[in-house]
Amino acid sequence: MKDARKLVESYPRVPITVDCVIFGFDENELKVLLIRSDLELFKDKWSLLGDFADDNEILDDSAYRVLRERTGMDDVYLEQVKTFSKPNRHPGGRVLTVAYCSLLNIEHHQLKKMDNELHWHSVKTIKDMAFDHHEILNECYAWLQKRIQEHPLGFNLLPEKFSLRELQNLYEAILDRKMDRRNFRKKFFAMDFLIDTGLYEDDVPHRPGKLYQFDFKKYGDTKKKWSGIDF
Amino acid sequence: MKDARKLVESYPRVPITVDCVIFGFDENELKVLLIRSDLELFKDKWSLLGDFADDNEILDDSAYRVLRERTGMDDVYLEQVKTFSKPNRHPGGRVLTVAYCSLLNIEHHQLKKMDNELHWHSVKTIKDMAFDHHEILNECYAWLQKRIQEHPLGFNLLPEKFSLRELQNLYEAILDRKMDRRNFRKKFFAMDFLIDTGLYEDDVPHRPGKLYQFDFKKYGDTKKKWSGIDF
DNA sequence: TCAAAAGTGTTATAGTTACACCCATGA
DNA sequence: TCATGGGTGTAACTATAACACTTTTGA
């Protein structure tokens, strides 16, 4: 025990931060939540929501803490994506950062704090980001594109009740590609995770679509089996 | 610039290590390379190959360094998998570790150093591991199972020239499931990344199989397009 | 009555699964 | 000549892709 402590004390130590890439969906666009950087050096640039990791805090908790502190929400989807370690990525010296992705429903969350000009930016057009945050955003976006095709993450970005058009718009925005409407519907109905609420869209200047909910419970009970080699 | 440095100096600092999960394939089994732990506390337990991250070293380089130091190889497949941060994962105090997966061809690498009883262990049966290394191994194994179905990583574990039986044994071992031989062959021939060397197995007590090479160049030129929602 | 999006089905193609026999080799 | 694994094809099934018209609503 003593030698373990001694060994650890001999290690170089590095400051650790977490950066949350918080995706949202609004106006048929994938958005990401950013603030103005705290640093004078980056005062005109946009920054991911980050903070250093507290002592004795597991990094997942740090990420939830950042979310809570910045947005007031904590019941959201959150997953570790990748650790970034370029020695010069922070102008103040070496800082290692662990990127987390979070997806949150813009409608269900009016931002309470607007410190540092916190607001949503279009993922496709954002530039001028602080640190290596653009690289982090790009990796998280690629991660999201892949993940959303394997897991039903997308529903975290939508209102609880949504139309199939909204769902398809979300997929088209994230994957940046048009899809066939009939095949899209067929696919999702075949999965059988959509609950027909019996409700319809309102206030739309055209025939209202049915509203559905995602059946998280049924999905949780089902085990996805991986199969098929494909590359 | 000054305020940036000041800010960073105010952060808590954490020792960082990398741990390499080095997979190999031998005797139709997936193996992992382990050593006896350095720590007295874990003297009967097996440990992944790790080391602390040097100052000003990007973590990918730390992982390559660990590989080189422990095995003498550096032209191998290596990828970051996940960062582990439980505050009590190391008995000497908080240590954060970044897990990397490496795949290396056992035949092409006779271990030069055998310090700390370095040797290959069967992934399926290993237990009694130091720290949280069993958890790390499990996550890396799950990662490998998924990855190998999407990318041709497996070839890094085989001799340069291999028979289709060896290739199938590898997939069956990693995915832990039997596959149909005819369909397996059809699949790989259809991909068209196998080069027929014109050579045959030798010293086998049955009809010798053809030996193939993987066409890394052709694969590199091809871009995989992701398509299809599936969960 | 018009504009706009909802809703719906079929056909062709590609991929996946399941399955059995003959062949080449060394012992 | 035997044991062992190599090598091969087909048929049923499932998933995917392409494609156009009618319906409902609000303005």
CATH superfamily of the largest domain in chain A: Nucleoside Triphosphate Pyrophosphohydrolase
Portion of residues within helices of chain A: 25-40%
Quaternary structure classification: homodimer
Give me the secondary-structure category of chain A. Answer: alpha+beta
Order of helices and strands of chain A: HEEEEHEEEHHHEEH
Mean pLDDT of chain A: 93
In what range is the share of β-strand residues of chain A?
A: 25-35%
Low-pLDDT residue spans of chain A = none
**DSSP strand count of chain A:** 9
The CATH topology label of the largest domain in chain A is Nucleoside Triphosphate Pyrophosphohydrolase
Contiguous helical run count of chain A: 6
List the SSEs and their pairings.
The structure is a homodimer of 231-residue chains.
Chain A lengths: L1 H8 L3 E14 L2 E8 L9 E2 L1 E4 L6 H13 L5 E8 L11 E8 L15 E4 L10 H18 L13 H12 L5 H11 L2 E7 L9 E5 L1 H6 L10
Parallel strand pairs in A: 1-6
Antiparallel strand pairs in A: 1-2, 1-4, 2-3, 2-7, 5-6, 8-9
Chain A binds a DNA duplex (27 and 27 nucleotides) through α5.
What keywords describe this structure?
Arc Repressor Mutant, subunit A; 7-stranded mixed beta sheet; 6 helices; alpha+beta; 2 domains; two-stranded antiparallel sheet; 231 residues; homodimer; DNA-binding; Nucleoside Triphosphate Pyrophosphohydrolase
Would you mind describing this structure in some detail?
The structure is a homodimer of 231-residue chains. By secondary structure, chain A is of the alpha+beta class. Chain A folds into 2 domains: 7-150, Nucleoside Triphosphate Pyrophosphohydrolase (Alpha-Beta Complex), CATH 3.90.79.10; 161-221, Orthogonal Bundle (Arc Repressor Mutant, subunit A), CATH 1.10.10. Chain A is 29% helix and 26% strand. Chain A contains 6 helices and 9 strands, in the order H-E-E-E-E-H-E-E-E-H-H-H-E-E-H. Chain A has helices at 2-9, 59-71, 133-150, 164-175, 181-191, 216-221; strands at residues 13-26, 29-36, 46-47, 49-52, 77-84, 96-103, 119-122, 194-200, 210-214. In chain A, the strands form 2 sheets. In chain A, strands 1, 2, 3, 4, 5, 6 and 7 form a 7-stranded mixed sheet that branches. A two-stranded antiparallel ribbon of chain A has the order 8-9. Chain A is globular, with a radius of gyration of 20 Å. Chain A starts with a helix and ends in a 10-residue tail after the last helix. At the A-B interface, helix 1, strand 1, strand 5 and helix 3 of A face helix 1, strand 1 and strand 5 of B. Strand 1 of chain A pairs antiparallel with strand 1 (13-26) of chain B.
